[in-house]
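Predicting holo structure, magnesium ion bound.
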Amino acid sequence: MNGHIVLLPGDGVGPEVIAVCRPVLEAVGRRFGHTFSFEEAPVGGHALETLGVPLPEETVARCRAADAVLLGAVGGPQWDENPAHLRPEAGLLRLRAALELYANLRPAVLYPCLQAASPLKPEVSGGAFDILIVRELTGGLYYGARGRTEAGAGFDTMVYSEREVVRVGRRAFALARARRGRLTSVDKANVLDTSRLWRAVMHRLRAEYPDVAYEDMLVDNAAMQLVRRPGAFDVLVTENMFGDILSDEAGAITGSIGLLPSASLGEGYFGLYEPVHGSAPDIAGRDRANPVAAVLSCALMLRHTFGLPREAECVASAVLSAMTGPRKTADLAGPADTPVGTRAFGALIAEALTS
Ligand code: IPM
Ligand code: MG
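Done. Tokens:
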């Protein structure tokens, strides 16, 4: 198999975690007989500084021509005062929309070896859980009309078409079917009209997936249930903004946001893969970031874009074997441990892959 991957290192810790990924994918290639080729392109604050825009057209064109895109992170305090369209985040949002990546998969897994790092008591976390959040990514509040009225009020609008709900809904049902067969659709149907549409569409789809156990849940309740009985969830599907918030919450209860990968998919096999953690400017450039989220994003790429589940499993177990060892990255190290750096931990993962 030959695969071409565009790397978008971006800002903050992005370049450091992406640097770990290339050798990992090359090790997979050597072990299983695949060839991955790479090219880098600018995005976010890095593109703003060098080219004056957060998402150069050339970057979009290169991404479109590739099989997959691996993104580090965008953003940083130095651009906080920029107008909205010249913020690094605007580049990421435009890229998601331009590539029509409407389904964002965010797995949140509590590994038994990290149970102590979870802020939940073991009797609450159950010692281990495996949740997949499917976040709608190209609609809702993020993309609706926004602005200021003449009277100086601010507004954002949440709009969902039926088609937008159907396509992400189908993806979520299919993913649930391939996992433990449970789907929770999260909305705010007691208040929002977009949520009532969302729920009606999901109920229609449910008839097509009779083997999936389906439930509706209001978002405030879902936020609570996630910290009360995370083990009860399999797949959650929800609109863009709710998904943004719930996926950070789900991340936090796994012990470290530095562990969470994501895949953004549209129709077909193309995908954009990125760690859920942001640019973490406070630790950027200090070899302190946990590269696990980025490496697990590569595992998602192997599975969803390249159709290589065995290789994906192999990367995931290499990560696990590095994590169960005595050496911990700064986010997971105890007060008595000397943390291991981003590069060194990446090398441990690559080593586990070749052994
Ligand atoms: C995420 C991030 C982004 C989002 C930001 C950086 C625009 O929080 O991927 O979760 O809100 O989608
Ligand atoms: Mg977020």
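The pocket of magnesium ion (ligand 2) is lined by residues 244, 248 (CB under 6 Å).
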